[in-house]
Amino acid sequence: MMVSENVFCFRCPCEHPAVLPLRSPVGKYEGLLYRPNTDAWPLRFLCINCGQVTPKLQGIFELIDPMTLRSRNSEALWKVGSECAHHNCEWTHILYASWPARRFEEELANKATGAFVGLWCGGDKHEFCPKRETMKLERLPFDPDDSP
After folding, report:
1. Is 147 inside a domain boundary?
2. Into how many domains does the chain fold?
3. In which domain, by residue range, is 80 found?
4. 88: left (phi > 0), else alpha (psi -120 to 50), else beta?
5. Within a domain: residue 97?
6. Per the domain annotation, does 80 fall within a domain?
7. Residue 2: its pLDDT value, please?
8. Listing from the earlier edge strand, what are the strands of the sheet with 33-36?
9. What is the pLDDT of residues 16-47, one digit of tens each?
10. Rg (CA), the chain
11. Strands 136-140 and 75-83
C-alpha cells in the first residue's frame, strides 16, 4: 500500500474517521487539497463504528496522520448501489460505508439493505425498496493502483 504524505478523512457524527481513497467516486487528492466530486455530496453513510446511517453527510474533510493508514488498513470505504424492487421502477440509490476490507460482503449487503430506509423514488412517488439480489458492492481501496 502506498502511503501518501497527506491523508484525508471525513467523520461520521460519532467522530469515527473514514479515510478517503486517493481517487474514487467521492473525490480525489490534489496536492494539499481534497477535491470532492460535487455529484456525490452530501452522501448517505453507514458507519462501522456506531452502526448508524447518516442520510445527508456533508463533505467536511480533514487531514489526519498518514500513520493512521497502518493501524486502519483492514478498513475500507465501500460504495453500495441498489436498484428499487418495485415493479417498473428504474431508480437506483447509492450509499457509502466504512467496513472491514476483508470481511464478508454478504454481511455488509445485509446491513446496507436496512440503511436505505427513508429514501423515495421518482420525486416521492413511492418508498425505495432495495433489490437485494442486484445490489452491487465495490471496495474503494486507498490507492486504486493497489486494488486486488
Report:
1. no
2. 1
3. 7-142
4. left
5. yes
6. yes
7. 47
8. 23-24, 27-30, 33-36
9. 888 888 899 999 999 888 999 998 888 889 88
10. 15
11. antiparallel
